[in-house]
Amino acid sequence: MNRYFWLTALMLSYGSAEAGTLRCGSKLVNEGDRAFEVERKCGEPSHRDLVGYTGGTYGDRELVIEEWVYGPTNGMLSILTFQGNRLVRIETKRAD
Q: Residue 79 and residue 73: Cα distance in Å, rounded?
């Protein structure tokens, strides 16, 4: 019983770690990285969008929400969402 619990926990943690990582050449970008670190590793994005502002979730300050798009690479777009200069989400989507 205990062995199955740990095996399941290991598989779930592997899946969540994989979702928060993007490969840029030989470098890796992770959720939590700063915008300048991502730009240094991946270069200038092909497109940037100002999405909006948070409702003051970091203290009393509003944070800028921005999306950066990289690609298409092998038919896939990588969409990175930044909140207050921190990478909070990495999405991949098939380019149309």
A: 12
Q: What is the pLDDT of residues 4-57, one digit of tens each?
A: 544 444 444 444 344 599 999 999 999 999 999 999 999 999 999 999 998 765
Number of structural domains (the chain) is 1
- Structure-derived torsion over alpha carbons of residues 34, 89, 95, 40, reported in degrees to the nearest 10: 10
CA–CA gap between residue 94 and residue 40 (Å, rounded) = 25
Peptide bond before residue 72 is cis, with ω within 30 degrees of 0: yes
Predicted local confidence at residue 56, as pLDDT = 64
CA atoms within 13 A on the CB side of 15: 6
Domain that holds residue 13: 2-94
Domain of residue 82, CATH code: 3.30.1450
